[in-house]
């Protein structure tokens, strides 16, 4: 794809996302949370609440702001690094499913689309955005210090870990997956978080290679919806953990919200439809 085509596509996607921010970042995850909780509690038919096609389509829609944010930064280096990261994502998940290392022995309880060797084919759609969101948030929160790798990389890994402290307990509560021996953290073993430190560190390094953080920072400053995917994450999984009285994950969600507030990315401006790239 030539630069002119990429620029035109990026502009159109920016406008589409900006015009639909409230629906994508707030309404959609609220509907998703209600459906998933209703399905887990028996108020919504499981075939509907946990339908693999609907789950994938819904997740893809929530990822649109993130895709729009990174699209202008996708050069050959970024595409190569992201391709390698997708391969690594499949590999580490396959090792985890078959050996129990590094996360702890677990199994999926909900079909997340087509599976290959026990690994969801759409796995990068679920994993990569979590790391990208953490990277974006770290870059914005650190300000000038984001220019130094010794601040940027550990901060991103810490946010990745915080994100999983929200995600895993909620997913276990809904039955998306479960750990063979349970765990002290709402059914999640501490080995899972050690595994996330390992896998997250590799993923963060790959992202750091993929993107010029200075150009990325400029794009983030110019893109008001760059963290809307993280907004939808805290809405959906924060509500799930709240319903199941997972109080520590709720506190972790609050910490993410504070981070979003500090970057002016979790306000009510877009709820009035005013948050657009063209003003």
TrEMBL record:
UniProt xrefs under InterPro entries: BABR_hydratase, CruF, CruF-like
UniProt keyword list: Membrane, Transmembrane, Transmembrane helix
| A matching Pfam family | Caroten_synth
Q: Does the keyword Transmembrane helix apply?
A: yes
The highest taxon in the source lineage is: Archaea
Q: Where are the transmembrane segments?
A: 24-44, 50-71, 78-101, 121-143, 155-180, 192-211, 246-263
Task: Identify this protein by name.
Answer: Carotene biosynthesis associated membrane protein
Q: Which organism is it from?
A: Halarchaeum nitratireducens
């Amino acid at each position: 794809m030539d630069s002119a085509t990429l620029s035109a596509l990026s502009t159109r996607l920016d406008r589409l996302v900006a015009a639909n921010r409230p629906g994508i970042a707030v309404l959609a995850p609220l509907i998703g949370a209600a459906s998933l909780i209703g399905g887990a509690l028996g108020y919504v038919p499981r075939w509907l609440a946990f339908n693999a096609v609907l789950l994938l389509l819904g997740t893809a829609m929530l990822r649109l702001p993130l895709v729009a944010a990174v699209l202008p930064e996708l050069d050959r280096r970024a595409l190569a690094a992201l391709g390698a990261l997708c391969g690594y994502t499949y590999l580490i998940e396959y090792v985890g499913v078959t050996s129990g290392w590094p996360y702890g022995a677990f199994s999926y309880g909900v079909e997340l689309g087509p599976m290959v060797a026990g690994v969801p084919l759409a796995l990068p759609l679920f994993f990569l955005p979590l790391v990208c969101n953490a990277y974006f948030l770290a870059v914005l929160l650190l300000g000038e210090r984001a220019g130094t790798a010794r601040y940027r990389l550990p901060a991103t890994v810490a946010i990745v870990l915080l994100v999983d402290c929200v995600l895993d307990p909620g997913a276990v509560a809904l039955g998306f997956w479960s750990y063979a021996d349970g765990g002290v953290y709402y059914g999640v073993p501490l080995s899972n978080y050690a595994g996330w430190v390992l896998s997250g560190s590799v993923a963060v390094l790959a992202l750091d290679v993929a993107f010029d953080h200075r150009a990325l920072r400029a794009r983030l400053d110019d893109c008001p919806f760059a963290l809307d995917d993280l907004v939808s994450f805290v809405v959906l999984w924060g509500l799930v953990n709240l319903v199941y009285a997972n109080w520590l994950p709720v506190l972790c969600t609050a910490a993410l919200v504070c981070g979003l507030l500090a970057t002016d990315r979790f306000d009510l401006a877009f709820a009035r439809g005013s948050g657009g790239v063209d003003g």
